[in-house]
Each structure stands twice: as C-alpha cells, then as structure tokens.
Design a protein that fits this description.
The chain is mostly helical. Helix content is about 75%, strand content about 0%.
C-alpha cells in the first residue's frame, strides 16, 4: 500500500514537472484530458498552473495589442499630419483670396507654391490635434512634442515633394531641399518611434527640442549654394 502511494506521488510529481513546461494554450488540452480521465489531482495541478500563467498571458496580449496600435500610429499619424496640414493650408490660402472656404474642386486652383509658407505650421497644429485626441484616449500627454515633430515632418515632406524646403532662415535649391528633407524626415520618424516605445531615455531623447534644433542646424546646408 505504501509502495502504491509512493508511486502515485512520484507520478503526480512527474506530471507537475511536465505541466510546468507547457504553454498556456497547451494547458487547456491537458485540462481536457485530465477531466476525461476524471483525475481530480491532475485537474487541480493543471488549474493551478493556468491560474499562475493567466496574468502573464493577459499582459502578453496587452503588449501585442500595444504593438498593433503602434504600427497603426507609425503609419497613420505622419500621413495625417502632412496631408492634413496641406489641406488646412489650402483652405487658409483660398479663404485669404476669396473670403470663403473652398470645396475639393475649388482647392485645385491653389498651387503648392502658394501654401509652402503655411504648411509646416498647419501640419504642426493638425499633428497636435490628432495626437491630443489619441493621447486623451490612451492617457499619454505629449501633444507639444508631437506638434514639433509634425512641424519638422511637414517641412521635410514639402522639401521632398516640391524640391523647396521651407527653412527658418533659408529655402535651399531643389537638390539640397530633398537631401535636407530626407534627413529631417528620418530624424522625425526615429524620434516619434522612440517617444512611443521609450527605447531610449534621457533629456536628449525624451523631448522634441533636440529634434527642432537639429532640424534648424541641418537646414543650414542650404547656404552651400552660395559658396
């Protein structure tokens, strides 16, 4: 009798060790098998292990959802900021010319040259509004930093699309504008990625002012056309 009891205990201990190596989903298969075998001891062991892993699994799913949301944000926010800024700038120029806001058809009369001055700033405002709405829902309070990023990103997009980068001190020629646009766009996207994921911390990485200062410095490449 004692020998039987010892064998049962050893069997349950081996079962426990095997159960600890299984994934969360695999545990449910084991639970189903234990229930079919009507083994109360094994059912209890599997249920205990499921309870241990459940918070971890829940956290894992939250992180996966966070990553999916980040992928959407990394795609949609820059596009919405740039093209939303262009649309708002067109409306401003149209209103200044006609004292009314224009339809989609009417806005075709506005050229990119007309909106060049306004787009970086309207892009920054649109970027702030979009991010403010997003941060309100997700309790992230960084609208100013994302607004500065939107400003830099809008300037970069204009430089790439039009060959005329709207610098704070100089508007370079087409080649320089596109080079500067590439650099500033890359910096803006890297900063945005870091701010969302918090891969790097510290004063230099944790606010948008370094991005703005670097953008201003990079823009000075445009003076090379005078040399």
């Amino acid at each position: 009798m004692q020998e039987e009891k010892t064998q049962t205990e050893e069997s349950l201990e081996a079962f426990k060790n095997r159960i600890r190596k299984l994934s969360y989903d695999e545990l449910y298969d084991e639970l189903d098998a234990a229930e079919k075998a009507e083994s109360e001891e094994r059912i209890a062991i599997v249920e205990k292990r499921i309870d241990e892993l459940e918070p971890i699994e829940k956290k894992k799913k939250e992180l996966q959802k966070e990553q999916e949301n980040f992928k959407k944000a990394i795609t949609m926010w820059p596009l919405s900021t740039v093209f939303g800024g262009i649309y708002v700038a067109e409306q401003i120029v149209y209103f200044m010319q006609n004292k009314q806001f224009g339809s989609k058809e009417a806005l075709k009369s506005i050229s990119l040259t007309d909106i060049l001055t306004y787009t970086p700033y309207t892009g920054a405002i649109v970027g702030i509004l979009i991010f403010y709405s997003w941060s309100y829902l997700r309790q992230i309070k960084r609208p100013l930093d994302f607004g500065i990023t939107g400003l830099c990103l809008s300037k970069a997009a204009l430089g790439l699309l039009t060959g005329s980068f709207p610098g704070f001190f100089i508007t370079p020629e087409a080649t320089f504008s596109r080079v500067i646009g590439c650099i500033v766009a890359a910096l803006s996207l890297v900063f945005m990625y870091n701010m969302i994921t918090k891969k790097r911390t510290g004063v230099f990485f944790d606010n948008a002012w370094p991005l703005l200062l670097i953008t201003i410095v990079v823009e000075q490449i445009g003076w090379l056309k005078y040399l």
